[in-house]
TrEMBL record:
GO terms for molecular function: catalytic activity; magnesium ion binding. This is ATP/GTP-binding protein. Its cofactor is Mg(2+). PANTHER family: CITRATE LYASE SUBUNIT BETA (PTHR32308:SF10), LYASE BETA SUBUNIT, PUTATIVE (AFU_ORTHOLOGUE AFUA_4G13030)-RELATED (PTHR32308). Mg(2+) binds at D200. Pfam families: C-C_Bond_Lyase. Keywords: Magnesium, Metal-binding.
Amino acid sequence: MRHFGHIPAAVRAGLFHREPAAFDADSPAPVLAAALGATLYSPATRPRLAADIRKQAGRGVVSMVLCLEDSIADGDVEAAEENLVRRLTELAGQGGETPLLFVRVREPEQIPDLVHRLGDAASLLSGFVLPKFTEERGVPFLEALTAAEAASGRRLFAMPVLESPELLHLETRTETLAGIARTVDKYRDRVLALRLGVTDFCSAYGLRRAPDMTAYDVQIVASVIGDVVNTLGRSDGTGFTITGPVWEYFKVQERMFKPQLRRSPFLEGEAEELRTALIEHDLDGLLREIGLDRANGLQGKTCIHPSHVLPVHALSVVSHEEYGDARDILRPERGGGGVLRSAYTNKMNEVKPHRAWAERTLLRAEVFGVAGEDVGFVELLAAGLAGLQE
C-alpha cells in the first residue's frame, strides 16, 4: 500500500516532487509508525465490516482500528467478537490489499482468544489497541500480546491509549507517566505508537470541546498532552511516536466563532468552493488542530469519520521547502554543526538543534511523499477528493 495510492499515477506524478513509497504490514516498525496517518476507528459490530474495510482501503485509508471497547455497548461484546472473527475470516478468504488492522480490546484475555479464534485470518492483524493504559493495567495486556505473538508466529504490535484519570489528575500524573514509561520501554519492540484519549480526558471534568475549538484550547487537556510528549516523545532515542487526538465532529452545527480557515490559499479556480465545503463540514477546526498536533510533537491522528482521512494525509505531506531544509541539514559535510541559510532564503537552519527535526521530516517524506515546488495542501486535498469520485 501507499498513501495517495487511490489517485491515478499520472495525477500523482504531477503533484509530488518525490512520491510516497510503498510499504506493507511487514515493513520496519519506524516506517509503520510514521505511516499510520489517519487511523480510522470502526465498531466491530458492523454487519458489513469486511466490505467496509475493503471500501476504505480503496479510499486511501492505510490503518484502521476495529473497536470492541467504548464504541459498543457492554452487552454487545460477545456478539461483536463473533462478528469480528466472522468478517475477518471472510476478508482473508477474499485476498487483496487491506489497511493495517488493529483490534481495540477491553481485557488482556481477549488478545490470545481472538488470535486463536481467527486462525489463519490472524495474518490480517497488525496488532491491538490497549485502552486506559497505565503500568498496572498495561503489563497484563503486553504479556498477553507477547504470548499471542509467540503462539501465532505473527508479529503483533501494541498501541496503548493514554486516557486514564490518573494521567490527567495533577497529583498522580508524574508517577503515572513514570510507570507508563517503564512499561513501554520494557516492551519497546512491541509498542508501535502511543495514542491519546482526549475524549476521556475531557470526560473526567465534564467537558466537551466545541467544533470551533481544538484540544489545545482546553488548557487542562493541553497540559497533559505537553507532559506526555515531554516524557514519552523525546527525540533522544527513548521516545515513541505519539498520535494526535480524535476529532469528533463531522456535521454542520451552528457556529459561535468565525471560520478558522484563511481565504488566501483558496483564491484560485474552484478552491473557494473547497474552502466553503470544508467549513460547512466543520473541518476547518480539524485542519487547525492537525497543525497544532504537528507543532506539539504528535504524528497522525485518530479518526472516527472517513471525511477526516484526506485532510490528515494532505497535511502530512512534506512540503518542497521542508524537504530541502531537512536534506541540507543532514548533509554529511554538516556533521560538525554550524548555521546555514535556507535555500528559500527565509530562515536559519542550525544543524545540531534541527537535526532531529530533519530526520523525522525525511521519514515522513518517505511515507507521505514530498509535494512539488508549487503544490500545497489545497491541490493535494482536491486531487484526493477527485480520486474518490473516479
